[in-house]
Amino acid sequence: ENVFVLPDHMSLELGALVEPTAVAVHAVRQSQLKLGDTAAIFGAGPIGLLLLQAVKAAGAGRIIVVEVSDERRAKAMELGATHVINPVETDAVQ
Question: How far is the CA of 68 from the CAs of 24, 35, 39, 45, 84, in angstroms?
Fold first, then answer.
């Protein structure tokens, strides 16, 4: 009952993103984010980056991503984060 056949035109790589994307979209819906709100995302792994895109699409005004990895912080900026924080160098709560 939990198995879905991918359409013929959908690649396996794209199909692999369906579930994590659904997790990110569900999180935004549960958050009650409103247009112009600030969103903080802790972690810029695959789901964190999908969450970044989901809050951006939902109209977040400021999107702050907290991430240790230089590469992942750069990717977060590329995908639309307005601020990135390295928690090793900066107190993310402050």
Answer: 20, 28, 18, 11, 10
